[in-house]
Amino acid sequence: MSDSLRVSGRQAIVAKMETTGMVAVIRADGPDQLVDVCKSLAAGGVDVSEITMTTPGALKAIEAAADQVGDKCLIGVGSVLDAETARLAILAGAQYIVSPTTNLKVIEMASRYGKPIVCGALTPTEAITAFQAGADVIKVFPANHFGPKYFKDLLAPMPQLKLTPTGGVDLNTAKDWIAAGACCLGVGSALVKKDLIKGEKWDELTALAAQFTKAVKDARTELGK
């Protein structure tokens, strides 16, 4: 594979998420600077970014990021609550969809366009329902209220699930989530710090991304994963 990260194909995109080990969850006050955010994260090894629909002008930001840094970073959309939003984001350039809930119509729309769907779920019933409907990855949300042990409990009877946590993931807990069976980690404010963005401290953001990259790599090496 060349230096370009123009990944295509549903399985290849999911594989890229797993290889990177992290998805940077970007919640910003506006679309300005998001290209620089994605670029800085990718420079530190976190080359999978999720731009949430709660960001004003999110669709324009996704389009700009996909166009300008799509060869350096896999761009997806988060906080998707309905099928039409999923469609608009895909047309804007989003390569994968992330929803905080299990919405069967969102899963159907992502599948129609051949894009991976990461569905939010909390209970065992929600998790298996999302999986059976076609979700590629199950986002346990909010994961911080249950902790890594809950992943072990879910995976014991349902080892076929690919689980990722959102909430409660930082440099101190990364290893615990990986040890519990997470296929990748959703990292928000612990990585994408608003003060760094507002101050345009791109070198510091890159350095922080490199710390997370190292934490995941070290944890996987130690655990033999």
**By helix and strand content, what is the structural category?**
alpha/beta
How much beta, percentage-wise? 5-15%
Note the gap between the termini.
Answer: 23 Å
How confident is the prediction overall: mean pLDDT?
95
SSE topology sketch:
Elements: H1 10-20, E1 22-26, H2 34-43, E2 48-52, H3 58-69, E3 74-78, H4 83-92, E4 97-99, H5 104-112, E5 117-121, H6 124-133, E6 137-140, H7 148-155, E7 163-165, H8 174-179, E8 185-187, H9 194-198, H10 202-223
Parallel strand pairs: 1-2, 1-8, 2-3, 4-5, 5-6, 6-7
Structural key phrases:
225 residues; alpha/beta; TIM Barrel; 4-stranded parallel beta sheet; 10 helices; 8 strands; globular
Describe this structure in words.
This protein has one domain (10-215): TIM Barrel, CATH 3.20.20.70. The protein is α/β, with parallel strands linked by helices. Helices cover 46% and strands 15% of the residues. The longest helix has 22 residues, at 202-223. The protein has helices at 10-20, 34-43, 58-69, 83-92, 104-112, 124-133, 148-155, 174-179, 194-198, 202-223, and strands at 22-26, 48-52, 74-78, 97-99, 117-121, 137-140, 163-165, 185-187. The model has no long low-confidence stretch (mean pLDDT 95). The strands form two sheets. The chain has a four-stranded parallel β-sheet. Strands 4-5-6-7 form a four-stranded parallel β-sheet.
